[in-house]
Write a structure and sequence with these properties.
Elements: H1 7-25, E1 32-34, E2 37-40, E3 61-73, E4 82-84, E5 93-95, E6 111-117, E7 129-136, H2 140-151, E8 157-163, H3 172-184, E9 188-193, H4 200-213, E10 221-225, H5 234-241, E11 251-253, H6 259-265, E12 275-278, H7 279-287, H8 289-295, H9 301-312, E13 317-319, H10 333-336, H11 358-363, H12 368-372, H13 375-378, E14 385-388, E15 392-395, E16 399-402, H14 406-414, E17 421-422, H15 439-442, E18 445-446, E19 453-463, E20 466-473, E21 482-491
Helix pairs in contact: 4-7, 4-9
Keywords: Signal
Organism: Letharia lupina
Signal peptide: 1-21
Length: 495
C-alpha cells in the first residue's frame, strides 16, 4: 500500500533514521582482553552427576563442567566481546548417571572468577510506565513466567485486555484467578474483559485509550506489547526512556527487521517490539479515538495506532535502538550470539509467521525465561559474550560455540568482524529497492561460519545459591551427545 510514488520519500526518511541508529550502535564499548582471575577449586568433583538425570537426555554423554564466580566492578562497561586467557572447560569425560549415579569425575575444572559491570541489587522503578497486552486468556500461561522476569516488583502497571477462544469475554472468575496469580508473583496486573465479538485489531488499538484513561500523576509513558514480547532489562529500558522528554509527544518503537515489511507498512512501530507513547501523544490518540476507529480499516492494531498518529498529529516514529520485532527467519543464532543486549525480544513463543512450515517455526521457539535466568546472578549479562582461549565463545544463556581453528576466530576479532552479526538467517522476501534483507536493522552482517560447533542451552535452574546452566551438542548417528554444565555464583565483594 506504500509502494507507489511514496517509496522515495519512505526510503529517504528511513535512511535518515538509520544513520542515527548506526551512530548509536557504534558508540558501544570495544572488545576487552583480560586475564582469568581467582581460580580456586571450590566444589571438587563430587555430587555433580546425579542431577543430570532430571534433564531428560540419553546416556551415556560426554560431560564437562565449570563453576564461574561473578564479581561486580563499577569501573566496567559491558562490551561486545570480552576475551579471557583461560579455557572454558576441561576435557570431556564419559558419564552415565543411570548406571552409576554415585560415580565420581576423574577431573573437573577449578572455579573461574569473571568481572562484570556493577548492577543494582533491587528491581528498577518503573512506576511511570503502564504496559498493556491484548490477548487470549489461555495464552497467558506461557507468558506469565516471562512477564514475571520483566515486571515483577518494578511498580510498573500492566493492563491485560483478555478474550477467550471464540472471541467471547472470559468469565469474571477466570479473570480474577489470573489477576490474583500475577499479584502473587509481584506483577501489578489488572485483567479486563474485551467486548464480545470485538476484533483483534480493535482490541489492540483500544489499549491506547484504556491505558491513557488509567494514568495517574506518575505516569509518563504507556506501552503496548504483545503477549510474546520479552523485556530483558527493565533497568536499561527505564534509563533509555529517561533520555527522552516525556512532556513532549513521542512515538517510540522498532521497525521490522524485514525490509519487505518496512516497505509495505511504512515507518511504524511494529507492535511485537513494544510501542511506547508519551502521555501528550496518548492524549492526542484519545481525543481522536472515535474518528480513528471509523477511519481505519487496517487488519492489525499496530497499523491502526500508526495511522491515527499520522493522520492527527505531526509526530513521527523515533526508532529506539535495542527494541526488536524479531522478524527474522531460519536460524536465529547470529542474532542471539551477537553480544548485544536487547531492550525487547519478540516471537520467542512460536517463531515468525513468515516461516510457513510448522517445523521451521518450532525451531525458533526459545525458553526465554530459562535463558534469562542467569541475570539473577550477574545483572545485564544475558547474551553477553566471552571468548575463552583461542576458539570458544560463550553467548550467555544461548550457546557455547567452538570455532574451526584458533586462527579463524583470531582473524574475526582482529578484523572487527565479531562486531557484525553472523548471517545465519533464511533469505528475505525481495522488494524493488536498493536495500534488501536485514541490514537496515541489525546490520552490518558477516557470512555464516562453516564448521562452527554449537552447544545450545538445554536447561537452567536456580539452585544452591546460584544458577546452573546446561548446554548440549546433539551428536550425529550413534555418537554420544556432549553436555556442558556451567554453575554461576556471585562474589558479593564489589570492586
Amino acid at each position: 500500500m506504500l509502494l507507489g510514488g511514496r517509496t522515495v520519500v519512505i526510503v529517504f526518511l528511513l535512511c535518515s533514521s538509520l544513520v542515527l541508529l548506526r551512530l548509536r550502535h557504534h558508540s558501544d564499548s570495544p572488545h576487552v582482553h583480560v586475564k582469568a582471575g581467582g581460580q580456586t577449586n571450590q566444589g571438587g568433583c563430587s555430587g555433580r552427576l546425579a542431577r543430570l538425570n532430571d534433564l531428560g537426555i540419553k546416556f551415556p554423554v560426554k560431560y564437562a563442567s565449570r563453576d564461574i564466580i561473578i564479581k561486580a566492578n563499577s569501573d566496567l562497561n559491558r562490551t561486545s566481546l570480552t576475551q579471557i586467557d583461560a579455557p572454558l572447560l576441561s576435557d570431556v569425560q564419559m558419564v552415565d548417571p543411570v548406571k552409576n549415579p554415585d560415580g565420581e569425575l576423574e577431573q573437573c575444572s577449578p572455579s573461574l572468577t569473571l568481572e562484570v559491570p556493577a548492577f543494582p541489587g533491587q528491581p528498577a522503578n518503573a512506576s511511570h510506565i503502564i504496559f498493556g497486552i491484548s490477548t487470549y486468556i489461555k495464552r497467558m500461561d506461557d507468558s506469565i513466567p516471562h512477564l514475571q522476569r520483566s515486571l515483577a516488583y518494578t511498580n510498573a502497571r500492566l493492563i491485560i485486555l483478555a478474550v477467550d477462544f471464540g472471541e467471547v469475554t472470559p468469565s469474571r472468575k477466570e479473570m480474577a484467578v489470573l489477576e490474583t496469580r500475577m499479584h502473587g508473583l509481584g506483577i501489578d496486573a489488572t485483567v479486563l474483559g474485551a467486548p464480545k465479538d470485538s476484533s483483534m485489531q480493535t482490541r489492540y488499538f483500544s489499549l491506547a485509550k484504556i491505558l491513557y484513561e488509567r494514568r495517574d500523576s506518575k505516569t509518563q509513558w504507556i506501552s503496548l506489547l504483545d503477549d510474546d514480547t520479552f523485556l530483558p532489562s527493565m533497568h536499561s529500558l527505564v534509563d533509555t526512556l529517561g533520555t527522552y522528554d516525556s512532556s513532549k509527544e513521542w512515538y517510540l518503537g522498532a521497525m521490522s527487521e524485514d525490509w519487505w515489511s518496512v516497505m509495505v507498512y511504512g515507518m511504524m512501530s511494529f507492535g511485537g517490539g513494544g510501542t511506547f507513547l508519551s502521555i501528550p501523544l496518548a492524549a492526542q490518540i484519545d481525543a481522536n479515538y472515535d474518528t480513528c476507529l471509523q477511519e481505519s480499516t487496517a487488519n492489525q492494531g499496530d497499523i491502526r495506532v500508526f495511522q491515527c498518529i499520522t493522520a492527527h498529529t505531526t509526530t513521527k516514529l523515533q526508532p529506539l535502538t535495542g527494541l526488536h520485532q524479531t522478524d527474522l527467519g531460519g536460524d536465529l543464532s547470529g542474532f542471539y550470539e551477537s553480544g548485544r543486549l536487547p531492550l525487547s525480544l519478540h516471537h520467542w513463543k512460536t517463531g515468525w509467521h513468515f516461516e510457513q512450515k510448522p517445523e521451521q517455526r518450532a525451531l525458533n521457539t526459545y525458553p526465554m525465561a530459562k535463558m534469562h535466568l542467569v541475570s539473577d546472578v550477574c545483572g545485564d549479562c544475558f547474551l553477553q559474550r566471552w571468548q575463552f582461549g583461542s576458539n570458544t565463545i560463550l553467548s550467555n544463556g544461548f550457546s557455547i560455540s567452538t570455532y574451526p581453528n584458533q586462527n579463524f576466530l583470531a582473524d574475526l576479532v582482529k578484523n572487527k568482524d565479531m562486531d557484525k552479526i553472523e548471517d545465519t538467517f533464511m533469505p528475505t522476501r525481495e522488494v524493488n529497492s536498493f536495500m534488501q534483507g536485514y541490514e537496515h536493522s541489525i546490520g552490518p552482517l558477516r557470512p555464516r561460519v562453516e564448521g562452527k560447533i554449537q552447544y545450545k542451552l538445554l536447561d537452567a535452574k536456580a539452585e544452591d545459591g546460584g544458577v546452573r546452566q546446561y548446554y548440549i551438542y546433539k551428536a550425529l548417528d550413534e555418537e554420544p551427545d556432549i553436555l556442558y554444565e556451567i554453575f554461576w555464583t556471585r562474589n558479593e565483594t564489589h570492586v
